[in-house]
Design brief:
Order of helices and strands: HEEEEEEEEHHEEEEHHEEEEEEEEEEE
Radius of gyration: 41 Å
Oligomer: single chain
Number of strands: 23
Length: 380
């Protein structure tokens, strides 16, 4: 029957029955019951999640500064080392011999300087007594200058040899944890090799890098006025690890890049987390979670919506118990359960919260659960 025909009165055995203007739910003419809620606004603590990479405060590749054979390996992979601790010893014999030779050259040069100085002083006395000419005096002075220059050269060579000898002990440049060890005792190494001896990661604190959109950066700058103020106002952040668990400690945003990545349209942000217990590993990945507060927003469960042709729909319940679809603009929350509704609903609307995929425009439903006691709708 058409709607007009259904609305007509039907007379049977002296009784008049009026048909409702809504369609009945499709199950054998019996109306289904659905849970509903009345729309209200509330202040909501929300969070945004950003993919992130974890880096140690310092990840330093260790290369030798001289060539030679490794004679001692004093660390192991994963060992915690202190700044200045010896990690490798390279064959010291040739470098010690070279240093001793330069020390001998220094001593010889010092003796030459003393001899030249004595000669010059003698010439000065003789020149005062007019025994030697001014030429002889100048020659003695120049000889002293040459001897002093030779001494300086010898000292420079000695210092270089001493440094080379010190480089035979490869020391950690910072506190940290030792990485892989591709070279063992007996391996020949040099400063020009492609693969480092190892790496030291200073991960007592870790940097966690993530990116935010250019639009979000401009929004923050408009709100706070400057990069420094944005960083100062940023709330503490949390770190969700790759296994889904939350890291115990909180971090804070330390810097925001002033350059936009042309390929992605995003800005790099660096946050820092304390890692005294060494549970965060350099090179890991995760998600940075930044909390923020939204005032007077509409939040509905995702179960109150259905998706049709890339549109998010909800079903409003009219006073007569009929439902009608409405298109929503929503923003997902990180809990995977709720939406923030940006448009499509207003305060006071009543919507179905479950089973929306079974509903059609115009059908009449029974209300099984009401979110607020002051809501009055027909239940029959």
């Amino acid at each position: 029957l058409s709607r007009r025909q259904r609305q007509m009165c039907i007379r049977d055995s002296g009784c008049t029955v009026w048909m409702a203007s809504c369609k009945q739910a499709p199950d054998a003419g019996v109306k289904s019951s659905y849970a509903v809620m009345r729309i209200e606004t509330a202040d909501k603590e929300l969070s945004s999640s950003y993919s992130a990479s974890i880096r140690g405060r310092q990840d330093i590749d260790i290369y030798p500064q001289i060539s030679g054979t490794i004679t001692e390996l004093r660390v192991y992979e994963g060992k915690t080392v202190r700044k200045g601790e010896v990690m490798f010893v390279i064959d010291q014999v040739p470098y010690r011999a070279a240093w001793r030779k330069t020390m001998a050259d220094v001593h010889a040069a010092e003796a030459q300087v003393e001899t030249a100085r004595l000669e010059y002083r003698s010439k000065q006395q003789l020149f005062a007594e007019k025994v030697v000419s001014e030429y002889d005096l100048s020659t003695a002075k120049n000889a002293l200058a040459i001897a002093e220059a030779t001494l300086e050269q010898a000292r420079a060579l000695e210092e270089d040899a001493r440094n080379s000898l010190s480089y035979t002990e490869v020391k950690s440049p910072s506190n940290g944890v030792v990485g892989t060890l591709p070279y063992r005792e007996g391996a020949l190494v040099s400063a020009s090799m492609a693969i480092p001896l190892t790496s030291v990661s200073d991960n007592s604190e870790v940097y966690v890098y993530f990116s935010i959109t250019e639009k979000r950066v401009h929004s923050l700058l408009r709100q706070y006025g400057s990069h420094d103020e944005v960083i100062r106002q940023m709330p503490p952040v949390r770190l969700q690890l790759n296994d889904g668990s939350l890291y115990d400690g909180q971090g804070h945003v330390e810097s925001i890049s002033g350059i936009i990545n042309r390929k992605t349209g995003t800005v790099s942000v660096r946050s820092i987390f304390d890692n005294t217990n060494r549970t965060l590993l350099s090179g890991g990945i995760g998600n940075v979670i930044i909390p923020h507060r939204e005032d007077s927003v509409i939040v509905i469960p995702q179960t109150a919506t259905t998706e049709l042709q890339n549109k998010i729909l909800a079903y409003k319940v009219a006073e007569d118990g009929c439902v009608h679809s409405c298109e929503l603009t929503v923003e997902k929350l990180n809990d995977g359960k709720d939406y923030i509704v940006r448009s499509g609903l207003v305060v006071g609307d009543v919507i179905v919260t479950e089973g929306t995929g079974l509903l059609q425009d115009g059908i009449q439903i029974d209300i099984r659960t009401v979110s607020y006691t002051h809501l009055t709708l027909p239940t029959t």
